[in-house]
Each structure stands twice: as structure tokens, then as C-alpha cells.
Design a protein that fits this description.
about 475 residues, alpha+beta, five-stranded antiparallel sheet, two-stranded antiparallel ribbon, 11 strands, about 15% strand, globular
């Protein structure tokens, strides 16, 4: 078959991309194809087609491969030009429900934005993104998705030579905070406005009649991002590289580089090898939410009001509300995890006291076992504080609490030791461990023997890498 492409970004936003075909993989081999996602998109793809189209070996009819321009604050420092240095947007397809989806290749070769990089990716990081993004989707967190991973048949040079691969990624769009920053830094207000108009039409069509549409757009992005980060925090997920070029305007999780799931609860948890100051630690993710959104506000200022001072006042008023909006979203997530009956003014203190009591205990298993004290106790070195907290929690539950909790607290997450074992095996040519782990994380609320326990003694400290 062929894709029914309708490439609105290329058509409507000239000057925001550079045309660039992907590299041709010399000996492509399909490693994994997401048939369920393909069906949801209305695509009937054969393995031969996936192998060719998602490796650069062939470009499907209707595709218009481009590399997207964007800037970004990386660990707090501004880079005025980043862009897709190893990715190619093939185009957009419309699903059966009329929703628009980007199809992008990652690891598909050099572009004018490569900044000296080789534009390639290795098998393990691409399979990691496939695995974690599909786990997040199964957990109900807004996320980009993975359609396929294809080995290229060539070696990429990292610390050692590694087998290369390309990921086919599906996203509501690839518009980022950094996309707006790219043009704002150049004083191209007309292009910022065009981006905002496009983003509203694509992601926030309900804002079309707003009295102050660009301020309403900013407020809507705040709402989606607050809900997204609250979802991360509820799962113990650490993104690892919350640069502004990794914050999607759609409200999806994007770019799974040095990400990982926290096991023992420690707010200061950092996994990324390059995050030496803890900027993107687990506990700092809500803070960076506000910091990144402030950068978006700076880019949008001229659209808020023609009067500069008035624009700043409007932006600051919206920014000052982020902490409260995030806290409300986070409390909603935690009420769900605790199965609380309704809402109570003391719920914030109840959750805060739980976190104080569970330091060091396995994040995922603690919530999964709350209703079974005998199974819960072994997770704690000292159960005293938890024993005092449990009666307060039980007083806020009802007959349906445990069932509600089982539906939102996963039994299975991508445990770090299992992820590493699966990726190491895949790099060596054995996909069986990856396929078994993928099947487990795609059904995260079902208890599955062998996939639910923390890393064995001696594993760690766990360090992740960006994969470029």
C-alpha cells in the first residue's frame, strides 16, 4: 500500500524546515513492527514495505522528507540553532478518526542541522525508545509512539562500533518550544505567529474564537504540560533531558534518550550521565516545567499584546499560575493511585506524608501493594512511619478503592536491569528478551511473573546515555 500523505507543515509553514532525503540503509532488516499502531492509523504495511520505507531504502509515494528547524535551551544554555540533526519528517497521515499524525525517521542520516554528528543511531537506543514509548502509551501517558525499528546493516562509531538502526516515530506533531524559540531569537515575529496559528489549528482548535487567542493558546499548553509532568511523577518516570527542544507543544512525551523509571523512591534520582548537577532530577521536573514554559512565554510575548509591558504582565500572570495548576494535576494523579474516595482538603498532606514515609521503598510496588500490608512490609527497612500512615489512608478509601488502584498502578514497568539485558541481547542479535519485555510492558496492569521485581543486589548505580 501507500501512505495517504497530507503534509500540512511543509505546505503551510515554508521557512521552518529544509528539504533533505534520508540516507539509504545498505542492508536493512526489520527488527520490530508495531502492527497495532499501524492498524490504529489505518495503515496496512507489509514487512517488506516497512523495511524499505523506514530505513531510507525507499521513500513512499507522497512523502516530502524534511529536517525541521528549532532552537533550544540545553541544560539552561541557549543554542539558537539545533534542528533535526539525525531525523527526517516523511510527512503526515490522517487516521481513520481524522486525526493528523507525523511519521518521522530517527537515526536516518545527516542533515544541514547535524553540527558535525553522523546523523545515525544504534540499535539499542532506538529499541529503548520503542520500548519505553510503548510502555508509556500502555500506562496512559500522552506520548509519541514507535511504529518500527529497522537495522541498517552498517556500523555506527561510538565508544565502540555498534550496529546501526532507524526508528520510525509517530507524533501528534514535532512542534516544540524550541521551534518557537528558533524564530523568536531571530526577531521573526511573523513566523512565530504563523507557528502559533498552525499549532492552535492542529492541537487546540477550540481556541479559534478566543478573545485573546495567543494567551489562550499559552494557557492551554500549560494545562497539557502540567498534566503530562504529573503523569510522569506518578509513575516515577525520569525523562532525563528536559531541554526546551524536548517539550512538545502537543503535550506528548518526546525524545526518550537517557530516560528511566525510578525504583527505590529518592526525590534526587538522576540517571543521565550528562546531568552532573541534577538539573533534571525526578524532584526537579515540576520546576523545569515552569522554567521551560517561561521560555515559551518569552517567544510568544509579541503576540500577547502590542504593548510590551502589558504583554509581560499577561505572561507573568499565566506563569504564576503554573505551580497551582501542576499541584492540582499531581493531586489528581495521586488520588487515583491511592484510590481515594472523592476529594478532601487534607489529601495534599496525606500524600506528602506518604512520600516522607516511603523513602527508599520501591515506588511501583509500594502503590501496587498498599492493600496488602503483609506484602508491603518487606519493601521497607523501617515500617514505623508507614504503619502510622496506613490508618489515615484507609479512612479515605471505600469498597471500590482497591479495584480503582489496580487499574492505575502498574504491576509491570520497564525495570532498568531488564531493559539493559534486553538491549544488550538485541545488540548481539537476539531479540527474544526484548520481545518478551515489550509484551509485558504493553500490558502493565497484569501481574506477570519475572517482570515485577526490582533489580537484584549488585545492579547499579544505573546510568543512562543520550544515545547520539
Amino acid at each position: 500500500m501507500t501512505f495517504a500523505f497530507d503534509n500540512s507543515y511543509v505546505r503551510d509553514l515554508p521557512g521552518t524546515y529544509l528539504r533533505q532525503p534520508p540516507d539509504v540503509a545498505p542492508a536493512p532488516q526489520l527488527l520490530v513492527l508495531n502492527r497495532r499502531l499501524a492498524a490504529d492509523l489505518g495503515l496496512e504495511i507489509t514487512e517488506a514495505e516497512a523495511q524499505a520505507w523506514f530505513s531510507g531504502a525507499a521513500v513512499p509515494v507522497g512523502a516530502e522528507p524534511v529536517a525541521l528547524a528549532y532552537a533550544g535551551h540545553q541544560f539552561g544554555g541557549f543554542s539558537p540553532q539545533l534542528g533535526d540533526g539525525r531525523a527526517h519528517l516523511l510527512g503526515e497521515v490522517l487516521g481513520p478518526d481524522g486525526r493528523r499524525w507525523d511519521i518521522q525517521l530517527k537515526g536516518s542520516g545527516r542533515t544541514p542541522f547535524s553540527r558535525g554528528g553522523d546523523g545515525k543511531a544504534a540499535v539499542a537506543p532506538m529499541l529503548r525508545e520503542y520500548l519505553i514509548s510503548e510502555a508509556m502509551a500502555a500506562l496512559g501517558v500522552p506520548t509519541t509512539r514507535s511504529l518500527a525499528v529497522v537495522a541498517t546493516g552498517e556500523e555506527v562509531a561510538r565508544e565502540v562500533g555498534l550496529p546501526g538502526a532507524v526508528l520510525a516515530r509517530v507524533a501528534a506533531s514535532h512542534l516544540r518550544v524550541g521551534t518557537f524559540q528558533f524564530f523568536a531569537a531571530r526577531g521573526e515575529t511573523a513566523q512565530v505567529k504563523a507557528l502559533a496559528d498552525y499549532a492552535m489549528a492542529r492541537h487546540y482548535p477550540e481556541l479559534g474564537g478566543a478573545e485573546q487567542p495567543y494567551l489562550a493558546f499559552f494557557e492551554a499548553v500549560i494545562g497539557r504540560q502540567a498534566a503530562l509532568i504529573a503523569g510522569w511523577m506518578g509513575l516515577g518516570f525520569v525523562h532525563g533531558v528536559m531541554n526546551t527542544d524536548n517539550m512538545a507543544i502537543s503535550g506528548e512525551t518526546i525524545d526518550y534518550g537517557p530516560c528511566a523509571f525510578m525504583e527505590g523512591y529518592a526525590p534526587e534520582t538522576v540517571f543521565s550521565s550528562i546531568d552532573r548537577t541534577g538539573r533534571y532530577a525526578y524532584e526537579n521536573q515540576p520546576v523545569i516545567l515552569g522554567w521551560n514554559l517561561a521560555r515559551l512565554a518569552e517567544a510568544l510575548l509579541p503576540l500577547f499584546d502590542a504593548d510590551g509591558e502589558r504583554a509581560v504582565d499577561l505572561a507573568n500572570a499565566a506563569l504564576e499560575g503554573i505551580a497551582g495548576r501542576y499541584r492540582a494535576a499531581w493531586l489528581a494523579v495521586m488520588r487515583g493511585k491511592l484510590g481515594l474516595a472523592g476529594e478532601d482538603a487534607g489529601d495534599g498532606a496525606l500524600v506528602d506524608d506518604l512520600l516522607a514515609a516511603m523513602a527508599g521503598a520501591d515506588w511501583t510496588l509500594t502503590f501496587r501493594r498498599l492493600g496488602d500490608e503483609a506484602a508491603l512490609r518487606p519493601l521497607f527497612a523501617d515500617f514505623t512511619a508507614m504503619a502510622a500512615w496506613l490508618p489515615r489512608w484507609r479512612a479515605r478509601t471505600d469498597a471500590g478503592s482497591l479495584a480503582r488502584m489496580a487499574a492505575v498502578n502498574p504491576a509491570v514497568i520497564p525495570r532498568n536491569h531488564q531493559v539493559e539485558a534486553a538491549l544488550a541481547a538485541a545488540t548481539a542479535g537476539d531479540l527474544a528478551p526484548f520481545e518478551a519485555l515489550l509484551a509485558a510492558v504493553q500490558a502493565p496492569f497484569a501481574e506477570r511473573e519475572g517482570f515485577m521485581l526490582p533489580a537484584p543486589t549488585g545492579f547499579g548505580p544505573y546510568v543512562t546515555f543520550c544515545g547520539t
